[in-house]
Amino acid sequence: MAITASQDHALVAAERVASVFSVFGAAFIIATFLSDSKFRKPINRLVFYAAWGNLFANVATLIARSGIKLGVTSPLCQFQGFLIHWFLPADALWTFAMACNVYLSFFRQYDASQLRGLEWRYLGACYGFPFVPALVFLFVGSDGKGKVYGDAVLWCWVSTEWNALRIATFYGPVWLIILVTMFIYVKVGVVVFRWRRHLLSLNQSEGRADIPSNGYAMNQLPTSPVSPKTYEVTISSQVPHSHTPNQQRNLRSPRNTYHEDAPSTNVDQTNTNVVVERPPIRTLDANKATMSYCKTAMLFFLALLCTWVPSTVNRVYTLVWPDDSVFGLDFASGLVLPLQGFWNTIIYIVTSLPACQTLWEETRTTLFGPRAGRPDRTTPALALAKHNRRVLGSHDTRANVTVSKHGSKRVVNYGNEEGNMRQAMMSSGPTLPHAR
Q1: What is the pTM of this model?
Q2: Among 95, 202, 263, 309, who pairs with 207 as Cys (CB 3.0-4.6 Å)?
Q3: Which candidate, 178, 403, 174, 152, places its Cα nearest to that of 302?
Q4: Where in the sequence is the domain holding 109, given as residue range(s)?
Q5: Could you read off the pLDDT of 323-375 as tens digits, one per residue?
Q6: What residues form DSSP beta bridges with 411?
Q7: Tens digit of pLDDT for each residue in 187-207?
């Protein structure tokens, strides 16, 4: 059934507008991944590889119906059919590769280096498997049906006369991949929520479960609460010779006024070790990890549905009624199939949101300068406190605090055992900053 001129214009406009969105999205993925290390997360590496396939697929979809108008045997029509059959299903294969990484991380305890070692295999599979039929179809034809690549209404692709090949070599494998991908995400989701429920029970009993720092091996659930950990604070009290030694002072932590410099004085030093119990962590770390996983998985799932459901329904309809076509289904297919790169960009931005926010601020500052009307409201005391704050190393569990008296001021030096002592002078009174 031939389409009208107005329908032709609508199809071409939908295909090209959607393709432009995907081209810009793929260009953003490639540019940011190559230029900024903050975007190079393991999952983004696969999105980066998929972006190249999106670009080549959009080259074909931007041609729209121009190849058909030139003739189904023209080089442009055959080239368009070859690109579509090669790169459109490759996107579903890359989504399956991402799901495989999730499976290997959760159930086979693969780390980042092991997953990176699989990337060359993913490249060969995702672009190699669809390349074979796409290339073969360039040379297949018959006197009765003509060449395989011909008028497919939306663009040059597998023609209606070869309808069975659409299901056998394109939509059938794609939906098999989608179903396997969904199965992996459901299986991992069950493990994640069981693990989260286990952590909830541990936190309610005032315990804390050790969470793997690399985010892998989540199927190895902790079986017993871990006792609260303690750390040691060493307080070295220094007093001048003119004062009574071993003078006891009641230490507390109200607001302090800091000064940059303090004169030196001869002091005696005594050390006191205090073992302090870490407070139980009531914030469930599992909530953030679970929601992050669910958000990413649902985005992939929705992208697959939005891309493949309308086009699959359309092609199944033409398989059953080859002499009939529904313009609404054709229009929906022409709109959603070129949007693969756009959906990948949305997922890429969501999984790299902090890096995107940093990039936006840097770009805005470069183009327009620092934001006016927002003076620094940090007081000198707060600025000095922030400057003097130091986070101890992961294996350093002690802080060294030295207190000395100079006139009406109290001089405080603090740092870890490795040195890097910092100094501040406090107003009179037995006050002490928190050891961090």
Answers
A1: 0.66
A2: 202
A3: 178
A4: 5-197+284-367
A5: 788 899 999 999 999 999 999 999 899 888 899 999 999 988 888 887 765 55
A6: 404, 425
A7: 888 887 788 777 777 766 654
- Number of Cβ within a 10 Å radius of residue 231: 15
Residue 44 · residue 351 · CB < 8 Å: yes
Do 346 and 404 fall into the same domain?
no
What is the DSSP track for 372-417?
TT------HHHHHHHHH--PPPTT--EEEEEEEEETTEEEEEEEET
Residues 358 and 243 in one domain: no
Give the position of tokens 């059959």: 85
Q: How far apart are CA 47 and CA 407, in angstroms?
A: 64
Cα radius of gyration rounded to whole Å, the chain: 32
Whether 150 and 251 map to the same domain: the answer is: no
CA angle, residues 123, 63, 321, in degrees to nearest 5:
90
Q: Could you tell me which residues come within 8 angstroms of residue 385 by beta carbon, excluding any fewer than 6 positions away?
A: 256, 258, 433
Strands 146-147 and 141-142: antiparallel
Q: Do 404 and 411 contact (CB within 8 A), yes or no?
A: yes
**Looking up tokens 């011909």, which residue turns up?**
150
Helix, strand, coil fractions of the chain, as percent rounded to 5: 55, 15, 30
Same domain, 91 and 190: yes
Residues 12 and 54 grouped into a single domain: yes
